[in-house]
Amino acid sequence: MTRKVALFVTCLVDVMRPRIGFAAIRALEAAGCDVIVPQGQTCCGQPALNSGDRDHAAALARQTIEALEPYDAIVVPSGSCAGTIRCHYPEIFEQDAAWRPRAQAVAAKTFEVMAYLDDVLGWKPQGVSLDASAAYHDSCSGLRELGIKAQPRRLLGNIDGLALVPLAGEETCCGFGGTFCVKYPAISNAIVGEKADAIDASGADLLLAGDLGCLMNMAGKLHRNGSRVRAYHAIELIAGMGDGPAIGEEP
Amino acid sequence: MSRFTDRTDAALADPLLKVAVERTAGTAEAKRSAAVDAFPNFDAARTRAAAIKDHVIAHLGAYLELFEANAVAAGAHVHWASTADEACRIVITLCKAAGAKSVARSKSMLGEEIGLPHALAQAGIERVETDLAEHIIQLADERPSHIIWPAMHKTREQVSALFKAKHRTPHEEETIAAMAESARRELRARMLGADVGISGANFLIADSGAVCTVTNEGNAELSLVPPRVHIVTAGIEKIVPSMPHAIHMLRLLARSATGAALTQYTTFYTGPKRPGDRDGPEEMHIVLVDNGRTKMREEGLAEMLRCIRCGACMNHCVVFRQIGGHAYGGTYPGPMGSVLTPAMDGLPDNRDLVHACTLNGKCQEVCPVRIPLPTLLKGWREKSWREGLEPTSMRFGLALWTWVARRPALYRLGTGIAVRAMRLLGRRGWIDRLPLAGGWTRHRAMPRPAARTFMDQYRQERRK
Question: Is the ipTM of this complex over 0.95?
């Protein structure tokens, strides 16, 4: 039976790096899913939620729930957006008898894309090769809200020629934090500066992670520092798109 | 620019601060990790510790009365203070009644919280800080920058210079042992000459009326046993039901704080000197301080009252590790301080604290009593939003974003225009300066987006 899977693209991937969305579709289709991109989706409401703006967060959550609830599963190429839907939507509607069950139902079938491919489908990339070394950064929401740690490494481990190298402080926040990085730029810069140094010290050719916000933060700092490390969302490599332009190489 | 950002800018510009914080917090992080790995099922122990505290906080009144009854039965006097000022007044009155010219104080964050050092100075009573780090802070006339290492912000080289300037017979050799000896010479006589010893409490044991303190230097014992009067100031949330509960919490406290299995000294004080005892104070007074705790319990911050003041949250916080403790501006720094300070000193002046966090969740992961610190910080952010404390730019920005995002067709149009505009500003894949996003591009480049949005490309592909 083919699974009808909805892709929640996320606003950042939609605008800044569409390749990640297409990579997710490619990997999911290779794993036998029928992927649909519901057109009613925009932003999950995370910026409002994390800023304390509960009403606007709830408005966007309701729209997202309506767009996503008809499908068997919802797959998201971002740990923090998946975490918002999975962990925080039910909290937003805790006191709302009409929306609480709908939020809970959508939460229960929402997955980060690599967790879905590995944990749920038990799928492995086949015939994918890339001759490179890569350091993997564990983005915080994926790691601590969704328990994403082994899944990307297992999937990446099936890419021929790809060597994962250890990254010191791989579980340490990169200093992105959504609006944090523009509200407190100096602190954010100090944090990402240390992160960029650790990435360079790993000796890896590539930096991989599962969240575009964190990747843009780290890649932007690496570029400003003159580093040669190139950054990709891990799903791009898993889908066999690791030979395309890295972040900051869009033609 | 807010005062918070002034303080953080100053902290970030201080290279020695970074060295000092990293030395101590980095070591603590590594040692805690080893200690947790060696502990059978640390997570289960954390769950149990949280349950113990939650039970006590839910039945706080009953346990406080039990503690009071047992402490009084052991010969201690129990005093109740609703506010910081009231607590200070009680302590000063007790000191004056004892005819105290000088008091020996064993490090207590509650003492800092209620402003006791200042109150003692106002009353003209000499204060001898007996904890080594508190002694350093007193010499430098500063405030603690960490709840278990008050002088964490100072390098040993800075401490050496301070001792040489302030001690009567300072060390000559530049070794830690010689520096410690210099502090010992300076402190010991003054400790033993004090009229009153003042301490905090790590735990209050309800079923015995005992007060537990932990130290690594033995300074609490030396400053609390010889004087005629021992005064304890303790937050009301320090209660545990019985000794086995205290032992359970102690097993988590030292490991979480420093990675040690236990502190060098763990002492239980039950009442004053009894007939036949060889030593001990003639009077013991315990001042139980609310100072906003009951209100916290009622206003959604009950989980914060689990806190056992180990400091693990700040040791593991990426923000604290960059800016140190003073930049937070309150008594308590780091993640736990960012939750507590708005409760104690008000939200309007501390709005930055609840926002200057990436919500990465590491603090919650290492907290020995599983306090959901990111959730509590988000709770403060919601309150700040509701009360209209957030800046207009933020309110307008999020309202506009939501208004557009609620209209997918308009949103697609807007994102398409934004992409084209951004591409005009980029060269060779990167944007070096982006209007309205100076906070980003001042420190890092912004990748240039692809020519068309995902939704645009996807719809075109499906039409083929």
Answer: yes
